[in-house]
């Protein structure tokens, strides 16, 4: 799921935004392509990597169609399928649906709060062009 079009585009754009002086300095110091990538590019790309991880976790967490087609036991239901099971045609229990929806956002909010500094750093540096 990480190698989808959005992930490739996000990482490509982030790597293109890195200053070329960093790569040039590594080349002058005698670093090859792999060493430059692992010692210069990856440590500077942590905000983009964490942002992509948050987006991919959110997309996987909110997946509905594929689990709906595959899962046939109630023990294996995902969160969106559990929310959908609270709705029964026109007779939905809206307070229960809203409560389970609020509980379903807790893991995403917790993940964001844990990695918030990387997220903010990625947003803050994305518009700076050297």
What does the model show?
With 130 residues, this protein is mainly α. The protein starts with a helix and ends with a helix. α4 crosses α9 (116-126). The chain has one domain: Orthogonal Bundle (MetI-like fold), CATH 1.10.3720. The chain contains nine helices and no strands.
Summary tags:
9 helices, single chain, MetI-like fold, 72% helix, mainly alpha, 130 residues
How many discrete domains?
1
Number of helices: 9
- Number of strand elements: 0
Strand content: under 5%
Name of the CATH class: Mainly Alpha
Secondary-structure content class: mainly alpha
Low-confidence stretches: none
The main β sheet shows up as: none
**Do you know the CATH topology?**
MetI-like fold
Please compute the radius of gyration using only Cα atoms: 21 Å
Itemize the secondary structure elements and their pairings.
Layout: H1 5-17, H2 20-28, H3 33-44, H4 46-61, H5 65-70, H6 79-85, H7 94-104, H8 106-114, H9 116-126
Helix pairs in contact: 1-4, 2-3, 4-9, 6-7
